[in-house]
Amino acid sequence: MPARKRIDPAQMRSAVTAVGEWLSDVDAAAPARAELAAAVRLSARTLEDVAPGSSVEVRVPPFVAVQCIEGPRHTRGTPPNVVETDPRTWLELVTGRVTFDGAVAAGTVTASGSRAGEIAHWLPLMPV
Prior knowledge:
This protein is an alpha+beta fold. It has helices at 9-18, 20-24, 33-50, 87-95, 100-106; strands at 56-60, 64-68, 82-85, 109-112. It has one domain (9-122): Nonspecific Lipid-transfer Protein, Chain A (2-Layer Sandwich). Helices cover 38% and strands 14% of the residues.
């Protein structure tokens, strides 16, 4: 399988900025699905680039799942270390509006496995 093209940080920043009003204001109109998908996918793939590896799977349904963080490689079935959240919470983590531990405590992020919490080291990707 050919290597995936690296994410351009400016492209990721632009995509996340495009949904910034929605992130700042719970009463703001939701962004178009394509805008939201771009922000989620580009930011998750940026995490995959900056924290390479395959020991933790980060899932943001319905848009993306990536593997990151160096360590034991997972290849089949359900991974032992999984982080899953919704698109809004993911983008709040990406921008630093919420912390990983705070989101886990609030129940907006599920983190299973002994290594799942290691993604907190890599967040936020784009502090605002």
